[in-house]
Amino acid sequence: MDGGYNVCTKACAVSGLSCKKEFKLAIQYYQANLDIQKRLYPETHTNFGTTYSNIDIMYIQMSKWKDAEDYVQKALHLFDKTLPANHSHILLAKDNLYLTKNRLHRVVVYREKERDRSI
To answer: Are 79 and 95 within 8 A, CB to CB?
Structure first.
């Protein structure tokens, strides 16, 4: 089964906005959530990692691979510090990182082929 299915399922569970494909609005709400979390929790709280991961998922849905990679890296960095290595949050973040890097690689290869054709 395609990893995109799991990402979409997770996104729909996280935010009703994502089910309506309002990913940009969902990201705005997640950003606002980060602002609230900064007032309530220390920076190492796992809630930050969960929110970063949710933003990552929204960017994946929008095919904004570089932005997705940035947020999944933030989530993974925090999770690695605070959770056991076999925790489901870490495993999901690693799956999303793999998906994102794979798609980024495909974009680079496609652009190189297009550039070579135009020469």
So the answer is: no
Residue range 50-80, pLDDT digits in tens? 999 999 999 988 989 999 999 999 999 999 9
- DSSP code string of 36-84: HHHHHS-TT-HHHHHHHHHHHHHHHHTT-HHHHHHHHHHHHHHHHHHS-
Q: Using an 8 Å Cβ cutoff, are 60 and 99 in contact? A: yes
Taken in order of first residue, the domains within the chain and their CATH numbers are 3-118 (1.25.40.10)
Q: Which among 66, 57, 59, 61 is positioned nearest to 105, based on CA atoms? A: 66
Give the amino acid at 108.
V
Q: Which two structure tokens, joined as six digits, stand for 29?
A: 């709400």
User: What is the C-alpha to C-alpha distance for residues 8 and 62, in angstroms, rounded to an integer?
Assistant: 11
pTM value > 0.70: yes
